[in-house]
Structures are given as C-alpha cells and as structure tokens.
C-alpha cells in the first residue's frame, strides 16, 4: 500500500488547437492498487478517454506524469492493453487473425504455435465469439466486434486493462453476460482494470472504486467513491441491496447536480435521496 | 428493360423466351440481359453506324475502311503471321540440319546459330508491346509503391516532394522521349547489350509517365490509415517493418490498386505514342510503318491495330481488376 501500483500525479493535458491551447485535464491525481477495478465516469467530452490514453502511453501529458510499478509511462506497451471505444479491429483480418496479431506479438517466444492457437480460441470463447473466428469484422455486428476487441486485449495478459466504454455498443443481455464474464476473468487474473463508462449500474456493479470527473474544460477528479460490496457480486440480489442502491444514488447525485450547476460540486451530504428510477440510471449521452 | 420496351413488345419477348424463363427467373434474365444483351446492342449499333459512315469519308488512300474491310485485314494479318512462322520454322530446321552436318564432319567446328531475319509480324509487335508495357509498369510500381509508403509515413518528406510530383505528373510522354533517348544512348553502352536501346527508351518513358497515379494514391492511402489502428499498432509495439507489412500496407491496398489501374491504363497509352515517335518495335511502330507505307490497305490495317490496342487495354484493366479482387480485402 505504501507504493501504489499505478499512480497519476498532477496530470495536465493541453491540446494545441487552431484557436490556441485547450486545457482538457487539470491536475489529475490518482493512486490505483494492484488488482483494483476502477471506473471513470463523467459527462461526454470531459476528458475520460484522454486520461485513459495517457495511462496507455498513447498521449503524453503536458504536465505531471504517470508511474506504473516504479517506471514512468512514456510509450504504449502490450502490458497496458487497450479496448478502444470503437473496437479498432483490422478490417482485412479475420476475428481469429486479429487476436493472433496481438498474441504473436506478445507471446512469440513464450508459446508454441499450438499453445498460441488454443490460447486464442480460449479467449474467443470467453467473449462467446469462437463461432465467428473466421469472419471478417465487416461481417459481424458492432457488438460482436467489440467483444473481439475485448478478447484481443485479454489475450495479451495485460497487467493493466484499459477499456474505453467497452460495452457501450452492446444490447442489454450481451452486456450483462459480458459484465459477468469480465468480473470473473478479472478475479481470476487479478489484473488492474480502468474502465470508462456512462452506465451508473455498470460502474457500481463492477468497480472497487468509481472516479467521477468534473466537466471540462480543465476537468479534474470530482469525487472518488469506494464501492465496498462483497465479491462475487450478483446483479439480481444486489438490485435491492441498500448499500448498492446507496452507491448508485451517490453517483447519480454527482452527475445530476453537476449537470445543473457546473461550479458548486462541494461534497455536501444531502440525506434526501434524489428520486430516480433505474430508467434514468444509464446516461446515454455519448459521442 | 421495361423502360426500353413497350408492354406489347415485352409480352412478345416473354413468349419468345418462354423456354428460357422456364429455367431462369425473370430477375436472372433481366440481370443477364443487362450484362450481355445491352452491350451487344451497343456494339451492333456502333458497327452499323461505322459501316454506313465509312464510305462517305474519302482520303488520299481511298475511302475510310468499314468493319468488313477491317475484319478482312485482321484475317490477313493473322495469315501473314502464320506464313512468317512457317518460314521461320523452316529456316531453323534448315540451319539445324546444316549445323548437324558440319558437326558430323568436324566435331570441333564452330557452328553459328542465327535468328530468323524476317520482319516482325503484327502479332510479334503486339507481344513486343505487351512485354515493354509490363516491364515499364512493373518498374513504375517498384518505384512508386515504396516511395509512396515513405511519403505517406513522413509528413515533412511529403511536403517537400509534393510540388515535384505535381509538376512532373502532367508531363507528356512526347516531352520525355528525346531526353530519355539521349540519356539511354549515352549511358547504356555495352558490347553485348541485354536489352535493345529502343526497348529501354520506351520502357523508361512508360515508367516516367505512369508512376504518378500509383505514387500519389499510395501516399494518400498510407497517410489515411485509421488512427485507431495506428494506436493498436503502437500498443502492440509492432516493429517498423511489421507495422508497414501488417497495418499500413493492407489498409492502403484498395486505394493503391485504384492507382495501379490508372497507371497501367496510362502506361499502355504512353507506350503506343512512344513507340511511334521513337521507332522502337511494337504496335506504335506498326501503325507508323503502315502510315508511311500508304498502300490501299493501310487504313484498314491501322484500324485493326487501333481496335487491337483498345481491346488489349481493356483486357489489361480487367486482369488488374481480377488481381485486385483477389488481394484487396474490401472487394
Ligand atoms: N487531439 C485533440 N485535440 C484537441 N482537443 C482534443 C483532442 N482530443 C480530445 N480533445 C478535447 O478534449 C476533451 C476531452 O476529450 P475526450 O475524448 O477525453 O472526452 P471523453 O470524456 O472521452 O468523451 P466521450 O465520453 O464522449 O468519449 C474534449 O473537449 C475534446 O474536444
Ligand atoms: Mg471517450
């Protein structure tokens, strides 16, 4: 605990635009433990993807930095696998070949050809996509492609798994199924996960911590909510669990109040619960 | 079809095609007619107009040839080719027999083997042209694709080279030819040349004129790779070569092929002009020689060559299309 696994310190991100510098992130500080499941939630355009890209090494912070296991992150690498917001599969490769590209790159030396093949099939089965192994991304639905993107990331055995709205494009049933798989996979492998989501239920169900970001520009961490729910978690029994409901309302309150007044987001405790039904719980604002 | 035929003629057509409609659905038939029938109709109309209009045009070499004369001359050209082949075969066997006799008398004697000295026929010229255009096109591809990749990957280089491309792209083959001829004569000096100088001149001219579409398209395709895929490549830490081979090239293959097809079309057009002007063997020279000949059949023979040139160009493009469908992932 004295030495965090992943640490962001004073991260500021300014983009050069034709109209001058645009400060997207201002002084983001985060400490994440090994094996922790962290969700990033916030309104569209607040800078969630930017945070993720900085951890991935795809973007370089203008100020401050990011340290993983004692090493500063300056470049991308396969130990920080990314599930991209829109699957990012190579359209000319089949589902199998897409995963194979990653597996070959990471385990060329560690695995034999046969081992690699069964490892790829294992990962495709995890996301229920083994049946479409020989299809091209153009021949499968967006949700299926997204699942392959997840399989590709998992197949790299990353120590940190970075996911940009991985389930956003999925229907409710598939989403529930994948959330459950992700929970059990993550418990088995104990990898650190940072997941961006717009879905409050998803955030509470999956996360150990929810990082709520303030609206941009110059977004920062608004609230940092620890979710202390027993694992394994069951979505059906949790639905009426008072702690679960409380957490959900905390998140909704943050987002709801933020949406109304941009300035005053002091963590004032108002016991009166905001009357929301589950219908409103999923924010559908997306780019 | 229904837009072309009035209802009564359509029913008559249906009746006439009763046997066919029993086998194929109407949709299939409509499809087939669109693909085969209409082009046939177009060609027939063209032949008819040509046949009627040709006798009206009088030149110093007689009237302009109609389809019938051109068809006859095509047969004639084919026959000439067969005759020439026969003579060449005879020449070779006679030479072999003579050499065998000489060797039988004196096993150490030096025998000479000479090629048949007869003039190339129309078909020989076609083959020469095809070889030249392929050589020029392949050289252009070998230059344009790698260079295009480098330009597409490096924005600074692209900015530096772009004006040069824009200036050289519109240059006509006729302008290049004298320069290429002089440079080839001056630099390609060898006692036992592997290639004819005229071949090199035409080939290099073809290359210079045809590489631009491929170069531009490759550059554009490489620069336009989806940024998400570039990020995947970075996360996987693909080496430069793997990145080019597995991400950049496959991603830009469709647009590269579009460029290659344009390039091949240009290569074929340029080649004919270059051969005419440079007097190097090939279809262009055939046309020019017939023109200089000025016999009563010359126009028919030139017209036959024109049609052959067009048809070969069409076939070349089709071949590229087939290769593209085999290779490109978006087809
Ligand atoms: N390359 C860039 N250049 C300029 N501005 C950028 C760039 N990338 C992101 N931004 C800006 O930074 C802000 C944060 O963008 P980001 O993509 O991180 O938002 P987000 O929270 O992921 O949104 P969403 O939930 O819609 O995906 C936005 O206002 C965006 O316009
Ligand atoms: Mg985003």
TrEMBL record, chain A:
Stretches assigned to the ABC transporter domain: 6-240
Keyword Calcium on entry: no
Key words of the record: ATP-binding, Cell membrane, Membrane, Nucleotide-binding, Transport
Pfam family, one: ABC_tran
Signal sequence annotation: none
InterPro entries attached to this UniProt entry: AAA+_ATPase, ABC_transporter-like_ATP-bd, ABC_transporter-like_CS, ABC_transporter_ATP-bind, NO3_transporter_ATP-bd-like
Topology of the protein relative to the lipid bilayer: Peripheral membrane protein
Location in the cell: Cell membrane
Main location: membrane
Amino acid composition bias (Polar residues), ranges on this chain: 273-287
Family annotation (PROSITE patterns): ABC_TRANSPORTER_1, ABC_TRANSPORTER_2
Region (Disordered): 265-287
GO molecular function, one term: ATP binding
Coiled-coil regions, chain positions: none
The keyword Ribosomal protein is annotated on this UniProt entry: no
PANTHER family: NITRATE ABC TRANSPORTER ATP-BINDING PROTEIN, TAURINE IMPORT ATP-BINDING PROTEIN-RELATED
Family classification: Belongs to the ABC transporter superfamily.
Protein name: ABC transporter ATP-binding protein
Species of provenance: Marinobacter salexigens
From TrEMBL, chain B:
Topology class, membrane: Multi-pass membrane protein
A Pfam family of this chain: BPD_transp_1
The UniProt record lists the keyword Transmembrane helix: yes
Domain ABC transmembrane type-1, chain residue ranges per copy: 126-320
Main location: membrane
Keywords, comma-separated and alphabetical: Cell membrane, Membrane, Transmembrane, Transmembrane helix, Transport
Bilayer-spanning residue ranges: 36-53, 130-153, 174-190, 202-226, 247-278, 298-316
Cell compartment(s), UniProt: Cell membrane
Family statement drawn from the similarity comment of this UniProt entry: Belongs to the binding-protein-dependent transport system permease family.
Name of the protein described by the UniProt record: ABC transporter permease
């Amino acid at each position: 605990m004295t030495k965090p696994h992943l640490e962001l310190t004073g991260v500021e991100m300014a983009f050069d635009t034709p109209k001058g510098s645009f400060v997207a992130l201002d002084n983001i500080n985060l400490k994440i433990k090994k094996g922790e499941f962290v969700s990033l939630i916030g309104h569209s355009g607040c800078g969630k993807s930017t945070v993720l890209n900085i951890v991935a090494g795809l973007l370089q912070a203008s100020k401050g930095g990011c340290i993983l296991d004692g090493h500063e992150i300056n470049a991308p690498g396969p130990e920080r696998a990314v599930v991209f917001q829109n699957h990012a599969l190579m359209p000319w490769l089949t589902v199998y070949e897409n995963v194979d590209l990653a597996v070959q790159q990471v385990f060329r030396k560690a695995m034999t050809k046969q081992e690699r093949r069964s490892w790829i099939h294992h990962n495709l089965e995890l996301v229920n996509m083994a049946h479409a192994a020989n299809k091209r991304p153009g021949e499968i639905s967006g949700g299926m492609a997204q699942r392959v993107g997840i399989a590709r990331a998992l197949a790299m055995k990353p120590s940190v798994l970075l996911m940009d709205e991985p389930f956003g494009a999925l229907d409710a049933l598939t989403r529930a199924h994948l959330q459950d798989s992700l929970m059990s996979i993550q418990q088995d492998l104990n990898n650190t996960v940072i997941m961006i989501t717009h879905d409050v239920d998803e955030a509470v169900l999956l996360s150990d911590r929810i990082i709520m970001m303030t609206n941009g520009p110059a977004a920062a961490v608004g609230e940092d909510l620890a979710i202390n729910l027993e694992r394994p978690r069951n979505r059906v029994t949790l639905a009426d669990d008072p702690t679960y409901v409380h957490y959900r309302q905390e998140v909704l309150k943050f987002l709801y109040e933020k949406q109304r007044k941009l300035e005053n987001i002091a963590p004032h405790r108002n016991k009166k619960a905001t009357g929301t039904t589950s219908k409103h719980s999923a924010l559908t604002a997306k780019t | 079809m229904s837009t072309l035929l009035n209802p009564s003629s359509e029913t008559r057509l249906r009746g006439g095609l009763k046997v066919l409609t029993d086998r194929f659905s109407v949709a299939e038939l409509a499809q087939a007619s669109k693909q085969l029938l209409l082009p046939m109709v177009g060609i027939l109309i063209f032949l008819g107009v040509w046949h009627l209009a040709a006798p009206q045009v009088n030149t110093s070499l007689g009237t302009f040839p109609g389809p019938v004369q051109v068809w006859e001359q095509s047969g004639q050209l084919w026959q000439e080719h067969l005759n020439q082949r026969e003579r060449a075969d005879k020449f070779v066997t006679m030479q072999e027999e003579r050499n065998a006799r000489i060797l039988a008398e004196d096993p150490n004697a030096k025998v000479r083997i000479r090629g048949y000295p007869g003039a190339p026929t129309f078909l020989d010229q076609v083959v020469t042209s095809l070889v030249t255009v392929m050589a020029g096109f392949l050289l252009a591809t070998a230059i344009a694709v790698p260079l295009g990749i480098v330009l597409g990957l490096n924005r600074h280089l692209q900015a530096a080279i772009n004006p040069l491309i824009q200036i050289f792209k519109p240059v006509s083959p006729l302008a290049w030819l004298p320069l290429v001829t002089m440079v080839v004569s001056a630099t390609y000096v060898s006692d036992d040349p592997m290639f004819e100088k005229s071949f090199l001149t035409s080939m290099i001219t073809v290359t210079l004129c045809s590489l631009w579409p491929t170069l531009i398209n490759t550059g554009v395709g490489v620069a336009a790779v989806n940024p998400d895929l570039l990020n995947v490549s970075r996360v996987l830490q693909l080496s430069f070569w793997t990145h080019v081979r597995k991400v950049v090239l496959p991603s830009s293959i469709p647009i590269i092929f579009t460029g290659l097809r344009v390039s091949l079309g240009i290569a074929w057009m340029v080649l004919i002009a270059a051969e005419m002007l440079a007097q190097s063997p090939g279809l262009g020279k055939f046309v020019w020689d017939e023109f200089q000949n000025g016999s009563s059949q010359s126009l028919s023979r030139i017209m036959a060559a024109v049609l052959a040139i067009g048809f070969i160009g069409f076939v070349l493009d089709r071949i590229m299309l087939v290769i593209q469908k085999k290779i490109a992932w978006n087809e």
